[in-house]
Structures are given as C-alpha cells and as structure tokens.
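Two proteins were folded this term; both appear here.
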Amino acid sequence: MNKPNDLFCHVDADDVDCNDSPNEHFNTILNARLSRRSLLRGSFASAATAVLGATGLSACGSDNGPVEPVAPVTPVTPAPPPEKLLSFSAVSKSLADVVVVPAGYTASVLYALGDPLSAATPAFKNDGTDNDFEQRAGDHHDGMEFFGLSATGTVAAGSSDRGLLAINHEATTDQQLSSFFLHANGGTTTLPRPAAEVDKEVALHGVAVVEVKKTGSAWQYVKESSFNRRLTALSDIELSGPARGNALMVTKFSPTGVRTRGTLNNCGTGKTPWGTFLTGEENWSGYFARGAADDAARGNDKSVASLKRYGRSQGAASRHGWETGGSDDKYARWNNSKLGTSANGSDDYRNEMNGMGYIVEIDPYDKARAARKRTGLGRFAHESAAFSVPAAGQPLAVYMGDDSRNEYIYKWVSSAAWSAADATPADRMATGDKYLDNGKLYVAKLNADGSGQWIELSLANAAIAALATYKFADQADIVVNARLAADAVGATKMDRPEWCSVNPKNGEIYYTLTNNSNRNVNPSGSSQLTPDSANPRAYTDMKGTSAQNGNPNGHIVRFKEGAGASTATAFTWDVYLFGAEATADSGKVNLSNLTAEQDFSSPDGLAFSPYTGICWIQTDDGAYTDVTNCMMLAAMPGQVGDGGKVTLSYPQASGATLAVDTFIGKKAAPDTLKRFLVGPVGSEITGIAETPDGKTMFVNIQHPGENTSQANLGDPSKYTSQWPSNAGYGAGKRPRSATIVITKNDGGRIGS
C-alpha cells in the first residue's frame, strides 16, 4: 500500500505515484498506481474552452462474423496535414468535476465501467449489485489502441469509422482491501473476504476488446458485436519465449510451465507493426500474499532473493486478500508461499508470481487465439511498449520502462530482420513469435556527458555471470529476474520510467519519468539517491502547507540511437521537458520555462500521433492537484541536442557543493506546447488512441472520485466526483472510469 507520509502518493493502492522498488536492498515494493480523475458538473471554464457534454449510448447492430485472413489494408501514414498544428486555444487549469477541452472540440462518454459487452448482459445499475463482469467493461480504463474494421467486419487497418478498441482495465478503486464502489455496502474490509466479492474484483481486472462504430458524426460502442470480449485475471494465457517450460514457471496449474492464468494490473500498451495489441503488466506483486515463515520453508534458496527484489518479503500481505476467498484453486493461487512437498513447485503456487510481469500479446481480431506472455522482453513493472520505426532488413527494437522508483529503462532487439510482408500477415500471432520470442534484452546506462549505452542482459556479461547474491542458471532466469540482472551491470536508476513512445519523424525515443520522492541532495537510507545527470533535480515543492521533496513534478527524457539504429548499443540523450509550476524557480525547477498555459506535473501517458506527429502527454499527478486536476498536453518536440548543457549546484550538509551537469532540450514556446484537456476531480488522464485519419481521438478517464471515503458510500453528495453521471451518462451516482471520444466540430484533425 502507499506510504502515508509520501506526499505524492494517492489513496489508491495502484497509484504509480507511489511506486517504490526494493532496488538493491529488497524493501517491499509499493503496489501503487492509478490516479486521479473526475468530472464535476460544477464551474465552467473560460469561453476559450468546452466541457464534456451529456451523450447517451444506444447499442447498434453489427454485421460482422469471424474475421477471415484476407489481405488487410496496409497502414499508410498520411502526409502532414495542411492545417497549422497546435492552433487551438490552450485550456486553462481546472478543479471542476468535468472534462474540459478546447473551444471547437466535443468530448462524449463512449464506454464506461460496467457497460455490457453482450446483448444478454443487463444494463449496468451502478449500485453495487451488478455481476457478470466477465461480460462487462472492467475498471480503471488505462492504455488502449485502435484497430480498424471494414464495413463487412474484416481487418481494415486504414478504417476510420469502424474498429476495435483494445483497452486495459488496470485495477479498482480501493480502501481497506475492498473495491468499495463495486459492492452494494462497500464490501468486506476484514479477512477472510467473501468469494462473491473476490470473484467480482478479479473479473474487473484485465483487458477488453470492444467494437466502436461511427454513425453520422456520433460514435457508439457496439454492445452486440461478436468481437467483444474480456480477458481477466483468471483467463488462460500461454507463455512464450525463453521462460516457456522453464523450471521457474512450474505451478500446480501448469506442471510443465507453459501456461498461466490471467493478466493483471495492465497499464501501458503497444501496437505491433503486424496489427496486434500489447499490454504491460505493472504492479502485480502486491496481489500475492506470502507466509511469515516462507524463507525457511524455501530453505533460504535463491528464490527468496528474487521474491524480495520484486517486492514480496515473507509475511507480505496481499492488496485485496483474494487468497482468502475459499479453498478453491482459483483463490489458492494468490498465496505465493511454499506449501507443498514437491521439489519443483508442481503441487503449490510458490512460483506463481513468476508468471506475472510481462508484455502480453493479444490478437484483437481473433478471440480464438490465446494471448501470449512474451517473456523475452523481461519481467518487471511494465508500462508501454514502443517499436522502432520498421525498416526492411533491420531488426525491430521494442522500448520499455520499469515503473518504480530507482528502476530502469530497457529495450528488446529481435533476432529476425523486419520484412514488409509481415505488416499484413495471415497469422498475426505467429508473426509475434517471429519477432518477440527470439532476440536480446538490454538495459540503459545514461552517462553524465549526455552519452549512453545499451548493456545486454545475458550470461555472456561477466558481471551477470559472477553475481554473488543471485546465481543465474540460464537466459530464462535472466529475463524472469531482469531487475537483478540490471542491478549487476550498473544500469542507471531512473525516476519511475513510465510510458515511452517513438517519434515517427526521426525515430527518437521519449520516456516519461513521473516523479521520485527518493532523490535527495543529502541522502539517508539505501533507497535515497543523489541527483544525477539524467535525473538532475532534488527540490522542495509546497502543496499548501505540506512540503514535497525529491523530484515531485517529474520530467521527460529522450534518446537518439547511434550507429545501427534499432541495434545500436550507444545513444545520446537529453531531457525534453521538466514538469513544474509556472511560478517555480526557473534556475533550478522550472528549467523548461513553462507558462500557465503549459505547466504540468507527473507526466505518465505519452504517445506520438502517427497522423499529425503531435506528442500527447498525460498526467497522473498528486503534487499539483490543489491547483488543477490531471491533464493532457499537446507538444511539437524538436530533437535531441536542440538545447544545451546546464549545471545545477546543490549545497550539501557537509559543506561541499554537488554539481550536476544535465542536458536540456529547447525550451517550450506557445506554439510547441499547449494544454489540451483537463479531467474531472481525482482522475488520472491515461490511454490514447486515434483513428487513422487523425480526426477522432479516444482518451481514458481513470478512477474519478478515488479519494472518496468508504464511510461516505451511502451519501452521493459526499463523493469527490459523480462523473460521468453528472455528464448525463448512465445510472447511479457512483463515479466510473470511462473512455471518452473527442472530435473537432469542423471535422478536422485533432490538434490542428
């Protein structure tokens, strides 16, 4: 759970703002990550902005059948639009319980928690009595991608009026074990938990594929679509790559180590060049319990070091108490203790946690194909997965971050070279096997002179082979314990690497670094680090009368690959933007010279539009929420090296001066960075997808009203948010995560 004294931690146990990592000293990982989102019907923004309107949903019929492996439309990036980009009027900061977008734009609710995904599923009552969540929208909408459909229901990557949204449902809004908004009376807050409550909460997690369709100028989700489906924390999923069949993956459910159940805490996403969906498993370790005497039960073997490094010290309690739901195997799997007598773990779930923490590939068009966990891409707190720009004859790179404090940035390089024919394959999952099961995993080291290295994680690296605290057996052991391997090679510890995206214009890679309260000029304790070149700020930011220390506002770093492009082992880097309040010290905090129309805190979601080239930046903030709700900004970045070097000087308690050189991109200007959207109270803005013509944007509003007290469940007037019901959507007043759809009133491209 969140540390109560961490001023940028949210109440939500899944809030990434609180993500600590037991890096080096095996402290228990904080299982946090979702954020603040909400829309109150209250005050309106200035005349330069528009608020989310009330839009009812009605189901429309679908004429699709099973998708045939016909040749899909090849994705083509349109020529740059003639409209001037970022010509909209910047949205002002807002504390209202509404979604605010610029004048000339309309935002409507499309798909919300509990919405039925089949004609047989009843309408959502939103009073805590609803069930059947395996056939409903899950909770905490997060990353998502759009996949086009033709008018006849076949694959059509270029379609802009009909398609599938693959959407992550990360977690639930929790207090005291229970996901209280989902249960009639708030749920049980003591152990054991009732099976019915556990079953509902498990089903709320995972992924949804839902058809969406444009009729006239209005978008709706298609309730009766045969494409609609849910993957939950109990769905059967295949393991692929180096760890498939390895001894580390053996469980009672899969004695051969080739399968696992469920995908969990799904956060960021990716879209493969061959048309499948990637989802990242983030804060999964906190869902597992571990007995107080489990170290000894395991004979203090090396699995103990692994468990501690991934946040499960013996005696660790689980986030929801799902392991107490009953004697059935589906509850037992949440107890990560060694309880059986077998030598290999085939009679218990001591290895169950090794099956979580991966990039999972899903074919959104074909529900008959099993999802696959691509173990070669490493096991950690995954956010998004961004591909290098495909080039025929060159391997593909996949860029990733580990979203915990003091964790690392990674990339995967495929063994196979890209073939243009694979953009439209007959078998999409087999194409995933080709590029995502065989390759090399690297971790980043960022140097003080603006250079960097990608260090391969393999037994060929002497530091990994010689590690005394954990003896790696093989490559499967390395990918399953990627954090330990990255520790061994001295990778750079970052301020919570979250989403990443590749600039389609020049191939440069952008990473959001959300925040880190563990940066300190005078560090105390093993978890605190001094500022370094890539994470250069340590300062005090006031939220009311409370001091927030470290790097509370976060920043965005970017890489330029060296010779070899996707296969490069060297790169250069700089800091594209520093989050800050506009009024903060421009010499030490507001280093990007942000104004009131641009200032932001805690960047999280990040995606480049392939249609306009706009870089969309979304926030998951707790540091600046006394001034504004979370937001989304539009940016037109330059390139690595377009700024210069700056030296920050910090006086230390010893009397010495700590000098930190860093490299800052060209400072923001009114025509290169603007606030585009502000969300409702308590919400995080996360997840973004566009139609191929760039004229429709889908954005997720996650956990509005998360700071509501469970004690106030019976009094809607005390909810911190009543969105989206206050925008005219759906029954009841309990707040709901939801996907919104944004269009421009003149029919133009978003952001122009």
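Next, the second protein.
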Amino acid sequence: MSSHSDGESIKRWAFEQHPVATTIYDRDGRLLFMNTSMRQATRLSEEATRGQLLTEIVQGGEYAEIVQGAEYEELQQRIFRVLETGHVESYEFFVRLASETKAHAWIVDVVPLKDEAGRIHGASVSAYDYSEQYESRERLALLSEARSHIGASLDVAGTAREFTEVTVDRFADVVSVDLLGPVFQGDLPGSDPAEPAPLRRAAYRSAYSGSRGARAAGELGRRPTPRLITRCLATGQAELHQVTDPDVLRWLIRDPDQEARALACAVHSMIVVPVRALGATLGVVVFLRRGSRAPFARGDLAVTEDLVTRAAVCLDNARRYLRERTTSETLQRSLLPRKLPDQAALEIASRYLPAEAQAGVGGDWFDVIPLSGARVALVVGDVVGHGLQASVTMARLRTAVRSLADLDLPPDELLTHLDDIVIRLSDDVEADAAGDVGATCLYAVYDPVSRRCTLARAGHPLPTLRTPDGSTTILNLPAGPPLGLGGLPFEAVEVDLPEGSLLALYTDGLIESRGRDIDEGFDALRQALNRPTPTLEAACDAVLEALPPTRPDDDVALLLARTRALSTDQVATWDLPRDPATVATTRQSVSEKLTDWGLEELSFVTVLVVSELVTNAIRYGQSPIQLRLILPQPVAGQEGTPTRPLICEVSDASSTSPHLRRARVFDEGGRGLLLVAQLTQRWGTRHARAGKTIWAEQVLPAS
C-alpha cells in the first residue's frame, strides 16, 4: 500500500517539478492543473484559473495588455480538436508572456488523455521554450540565404540592395549601406579615411515600405558623419548602441531619405558594422530596430559581422568587376572613332551601346574611312567573345582594315587579306592557350560620282537600305564565311543607290536578343527606319529605342549613312589619246575648267600636276587614258571651317604602279611624282580589275 502511495507521489512530483510548462484540461477544455513551470512562466495560480477556458484566462488581468488574441484562440481550438479527435497536435507558438519583454518561440504539444478503453477524459498542453534554438536556426537560415542571394549581381548598388533585401524584416527594421566614394568608380579607398568620410548611399530599405529611399545609388550624403561612424571606419570594429545619444538621434533625423527621418524617432537600438575587404574599408552598414521589436543584443553583433563579411566579399567582387569593365569600355571606346571624318559623299551618324554588365565588354566596332576620288569606305565588325581579349583583337582588326583600305582594295579582296590576318592572330592566341579568334565583318565602298556602292561581307548580318521613295529592303549579299576560317572566297556586290538613300550597317546585337528571333528584329528595324525623323542622329535614336533593350545581351554597333551625289558640274572628264601632243591641249582644257569653277588661283599648281600625271600615263601606261577632275561640295574642316578638296585622277589600262624616287643631279626625268607629292596634300594609286588610277588631292578653303 505504501508502495502505491509512493508511486502516486512520484507521479505528482514528476508533473509538478518537470521543467516543461504543462497544463491539464478536462473533457470540456477547462483547466484542471498546471505545474510549477507553467505557473512561473505565466505568473498565474492554479486556484485562480481552475475551471476556466484558456481564452477566459487570458482575457483579464495583466495578460489583457500583452497577448495577441489570435494565438490563444488558435491554441483553444487545438485543445477542442484534440479532445474530439484524439490525435496529438504539435506546432510552434510565438507569444510574449507577462514576465517577458519580448515574444518567445514555444513548441506546443497538445496530447489527448485516454483510459484503458481509449475513451478521452482530457488533454495536456506542454509548452517548451526553444527561443535559443529557434534564434540559432533563424541565424543559420539568414546566413544561408545571404550566401545564396547576395552576389547575384555584379553591380555595386545591386549587391548592396540584395543585402538589404535579405536582412530587412528578418533581422532589422531598417538597413542602410553607405560606401566610400571610390568604390562606385571601382577603386579601393585609402586605408585611413579622412574626416568627414565621403560616404555615398548604396542601398536603403525599411520593413515599413521596402523602399530604397529617395536618393539614387551613389549620391553623396549631405549630413555630417557622426563620431561613431568615423570611429567604426577607422577601427574596423562593429559597434552596438542603444539610441540615447543626442548626436546619433540628430544624425538619424538628418538623413536625406524622408522615410528615414520619420522612422528615426522610434529607433531604439543600432548596430554599425564596417565593410572591409582586402584590408581596406569600403564603407559601413547600419542596422536599426524600432518600436516594439526587441533591441539588439550583444549576441547580434556576431550575426551582423558574419552577414557583412559575406556582403563585403560580394561588394569587392562587384567593385573589381566594375573597375575591369570600366577599363575595358574605356579601351574599347578609345579605339572606336571619336569623331567621324568629314567627307562629301555621305551624311553619317553612329551609335555604340555596350552589353549588360554580366555579358562583359565585346569586340564590336565600326569605322568610316575616306578614300580617293571622294569615295568613302564603311566598315562594321564583330569579334567573337567578350572581355579585354575581344577589345584588343577588335583594335588590331580595325587597324588592319584601315591599312588595307589605304591600298584601295576592292571589298572582297580586302576581306580576303583580313581573313589571313585573323588566322595569324588565332595562331598567336592559340599559342598562349587563350582560345581561337573569330570575327564577322561588312565592308562597303560608296562612290558619289557613279552613285554606286560595292559591298562584301564575312558572315556578318545583312545591311538594310531605305530608298528615297520610302521602300525599305534588306540587301541580299553573299554570306561569305566568318573571318578566321581561311580558304573560302568572298564575293562583292554592286548596288546603285539613288541620292538620299539610307544605308544601315550594324552588328547582330541590334537585331538578335533573348525572346526575339532575327526576323522579328529585321521587321522592327525596317519599321524604325521608316519612321520620319528630322535628322540622321534622331534616326539612330529611333532605331535604338525600337530594338535593343537598355542593356542588351550583346554589344550594339550601328552606322547610318545617307548618300549624297556629285552633280555633272562637279566632275569633269576627258578621254585622252596616247599622244604626247595632247598634254598641251589638256593643260588648256583644265585651266578653262578651273576658271569655270572660280579657281583661277589654282591653275598653275593644278595644271602642273595634270601635266606630270598625263605625261606619265602616255609614256608608261596603256590606252585608254582618262583624266578626271572632281570638286565636291565644301565639308567642315578640323576647326569647323568649311574646306573642299580638288581631286585630279588619271587612269590607264596598265597595272604597273609608279614609284616615287629621288632623281640625281644629271637625270633628265624622275622628278614628276616628287613634284606632285610636294604640291598636293596627298596622292596615291588604286588598282581596278583592269588598269590603275593615279590620283592627287588638294584641299582648299571654300570661298
């Protein structure tokens, strides 16, 4: 008998002394017993609460001010459900008890109490305070999310914004990331920031609106930096503050973000953490809590330091990427023509749009190259790949094209030589184990006298032509292989262009993008070119507005050229017999033509140049021989002063090129080309399918 009594006592002691807060409810859900742990946790007595429903217990007394009715209503419903179904229910319960200053996390088990026959006579509710485990779990989850979410963007402001998205609401009410000015240019700040620190806002977010704030990323703050921030930057140590310092309050209230000023009055605690990478301080992160949320504690410092350390690595990656991308873009833009050359054959406008940051700098380029005879070469190319290697390869190809263009090669021959150059570049790159070199290119030469354009392409997108009658077509050119394959031919096509025709050359980034095929790109380009625009520059803007996104997947190079034509009174042509006697009559005809053009003061020099070139053609060339003078309209010079070239051309059927040499004292000949070189701004030779043309150009101010 005593053994049974001892057993009952032990059970009663086990219930009373068990560290898990436990209550027992009868079949109607009314309280019967609560153990010591429950009484201590709730500050309620068993006698005062016996026979009451849980919702009745929490409605009065000190609980009326602190509990959220919804939580207790849910627990009451679970008790009723367990009493009815006999199934155990477990869930997490968050509540602030009367003896606590903040809500705790509880694991609650509602268990039915049954007899040997399985009949339900009541239910027990056990509540285990697992706040420490919960907070540890949440911190680990927060750090895990930070590792996976922060750093998705290789953008300084974007990375800072990702950090605030992870930390706001889950850890703090307000988070701001302010970085030192050089970080936004991709540079490392000095190791000893001066006072006051030149902090610029990178990201701002609050749990109340989710906004980043009123200022744009990188904007310089106008508020003075308090001592605690400068101290944090100087020491590299995180600091926890309860916001009672008047200087801190004034600093918060002076925040240029209007929302921050409104929230500052309710802020009660703050953690300031320096952002450090590679031994340098990049900036500072400020965490704020306000209102009824529990203030930051010392244990939160370790969490913030772990979070900011992760963010610092990502911010430094973004900073270094920004520096490398800026360097690449600067290199690329420095290699593109800063100012398109002045010439009379075409009206030119161009645009270059870099790819989005993740894609990296590409190797797209364009160029406009004045040629002899008032002709102009247009070139657009695209090197395969992105990065510095693509930019350097682009620079080498652009230089090669200019050198080949100086030889006045036909477009198909120029691409053949360029193909050989790319193959040699690929061999050099392969030796460095950096991969192959490949490129596409479109080369066109327009002659304003014949109004004819000769084009050839090496795997490049087809050009688009809009004629003055308003029709827009895609020029059908032979594709040609991309540069670097070798051994395959290129073909040139000649197209007659009416004056005022608009020719559009571009790289594939303009017409190809994610979510749109090339045919849709061509249709959008045609529609954009058909849109009325006051200027060619406006036409470029219209094309870019209609086609690629603001940050396209690939670089975009666009070159628009509107054709001009030389009228018959701007060109004079003479067919000459191969007879030395014709030189005198030719000099007379040229002198008369210069008088008609109002250029009598150039007669002596021009007649001398014509005499030398015609004499050489008669003596060393082959029939037919032709002399042509070209006087294009004035174009803007280097200083903005209009200039006009006077071009003299002598053509014959011989392919032998003349050579400039220095005649000896007693030589009777050999001085002709030397005189031509001395009297003109430039001269040269260009070869045709049959024969050659010797040309010389004088540049004279317009009257």
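The chain has a mean pLDDT of 82. The radius of gyration is 42 Å. These notes refer to the second protein only.
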